Amino acid sequence: MMLSYGKIFVASLLLLQFAACNVYSEDLLPVKIQAALLFKTIGYIKDPAQVSSDGKILIGIIFDDNMASKSYAKSIMDAVLLAKAANYKVCNSELEPVLMEYKNEETLLGNFNIKKIRVLYVITQNEQYVGGIIKCTQQAKVLSVTGLKPGESVKKGISIVFAMVDGKPAVFANDKSIQNEGKEFTKDFYSLVKAVK
Question: Facing residues of 195 across strands?
């Protein structure tokens, strides 16, 4: 009897994990494309000093307490590390990803200062968390980026969103949020993205 309950429990856990992961994979760009777009986007920042420190660009990849969020954040991190392994540099700087779990605004601001994070990849769909995260990115002048649903993410104040539109990769930019986060992109960047107000 114990064995069959164990099998049911394991099967239930696997099904739950699969269902949770689908929340973060349906209609999203593959993580390798998101990583490539992240590198390209950062390359369009007018002043590399806005994101670079000591020859490195530290990218926080923030997730929430949801298992699927953490798993997806790890996938994004792996894709960034693969691009880094190929010696791909942006603004003559190495990209260094750092996984972070969102706890509260105070902890996040502390991480920005201690770790010198200037770009934050947001992997959460929790509206309360996103509100707190955006408040922190604007206060600390950290560029916010995500690969989650473009309409909702941009409305919440995330600056850059990578998405799939008609089967093709697209980049959405919220200029007001970009300004609030103290960043400035080249004119070439704005000719390539879809502006959102």
Answer: 173
